[in-house]
Amino acid sequence: MKLFIPGPVSVPSEIMQAMGKEMIGHRGKEFAEIFGECSSGLKKVFQTNNRVLISTSSGTGLMEAAIRNCVNDNVLMVECGAFGKKWIDIAKACGKSVDILHVEPGKAVNKEVLAEKLSQKKYESVCVTHNETSTGVENPIAEIAPLVKESGALLCVDSVSSMGGANIPVDTIGIDVCLTSSQKCFSLPPGLSFASVSEAALEKSKTVKAKGYYFDFVELAKEYDTNQTPYTPAVGLIFGLKTQLATMLTEGMDNVWARHEAMATETQKWALGLGMDLFAEQGHRSKTVTCVSNTNKINLEEVKKKVKAKGYVMDAGYRKLNDELIAKGLADTLRIPHMGNLKVEELKAYLQALTEEMKAQ
Ligand SMILES: *Cc1c(COP(=O)(O)O)cnc(C)c1O
User: Fold this and answer.
1) Phi-psi bin for 164: left (phi > 0), alpha (psi -120 to 50), beta?
2) pLDDT of 102
3) Domains of the chain, earliest start first
4) Does the pLDDT value for residue 361 go beyond 90?
5) Closest ligand 1 atom to the C-alpha of 289?
6) Does residue 243 line the site of ligand 1, with CB under 6 A?
7) 58 in contact with ligand 1, CB cutoff 6 A
8) Is residue 288 within 6 Å of ligand 1 at its C-beta?
């Protein structure tokens, strides 16, 4: 089955093979070498000189880590959809006071509105979703980062569904914590997540009380500097990561980003060509997942069944968003993910299969 859901994505066989290697201990020289290679590869993908921590958890774990290490009390959440809401839920569960800047689903955060919000109160951190997977919106991180910096807050970015697919120059933009998961643009199985952590974020972490144990950036950074992790990592996944980073860097990150852009353009043209609309506003459309308004009122569950028979697992939209849209009498959505090692031709074949089944409805 080819997975066309926004994570996990299908895993290439060479990664599965690499992961099946004989197990090794995580305190030995061999592991340290592999870890070192992974950390230098990740720095290239993240375009950062900061440490890129490797965590054995899904991305949600590192979202919690960002909150626990970078917020003593108050945080501002820029919320544009389901994954922005996740930031809010995590911060509340960690006992932080949360202010919310709500953005309409399908829209990106507006710089002026954020500036106004930041002028009203001083925040320790601002958390933003770079690529809102539920709506297909890409937020203008580079535009808002200077505002956050000027306000004195740390900037924490969830790039779970975009890092490795979209060009996010972490250091140029000035992101303090930028985190992602293995099962989206990295084409790995779920289970690992990565976060770049700035010196400012580490300094902040030293001052935060009751930040828990597993995700303490200070401890993670200390071990990281000796190519180690404080506790047993998912060694098999790290074998896979080494192989995948080599694949990405051999293709060249410029080419990887260009391929994702090309796939996004292809998908947008396809949707418009069938008379459907794009859910995300123009100028802020994701490079890695396209959210399409089902304006033709096609029975998506039927299409899903039909393409399954052709070997594809289709995504029929983010359920909560669709429930809200339907309640308002609006068209529901479907999402076409185009992330990871997917080739343009593979995407085209999938879109062709969708076209055939949609027309048959
Ligand atoms: C998938 C996703 C998450 C959740 O990541 P997990 O690895 O499942 O914990 C968070 N944020 C965004 C934007 C996502 O797409």
Assistant:
1) left
2) 98
3) 12-251 (3.40.640.10), 253-359 (3.90.1150.10)
4) no
5) 15
6) no
7) yes
8) no
